[in-house]
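Quick question: who can interpret this fold?

. . .
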Amino acid sequence: MDYIDAIQKFINPIVNFPEKVVIIELPNDNSKDRTFLITCEKDDAGRLIGKHGSTADALREVLSIAGKTNEERVHIKFASTEEIAE
């Protein structure tokens, strides 16, 4: 499954600057774990996380279910481009 494409389709309608969203897969020691880092503008990061993390939890849940079909554990991390620059 192309997790990056699935993440992109989920978050593009939510963010104001979809062209500034970068999704990368982070290396893992375990081949069954897949970790993705989503970086975007600070305001968009707030939208993606949502009130009390509700949007982030929903994204994690959807990808977790998708990962189970491939016997993989999918993890999502968020960062704003400002955090990366520091």
Summary: The beta strands are 22-26, 33-40, 73-80. The chain has a mean pLDDT of 92.
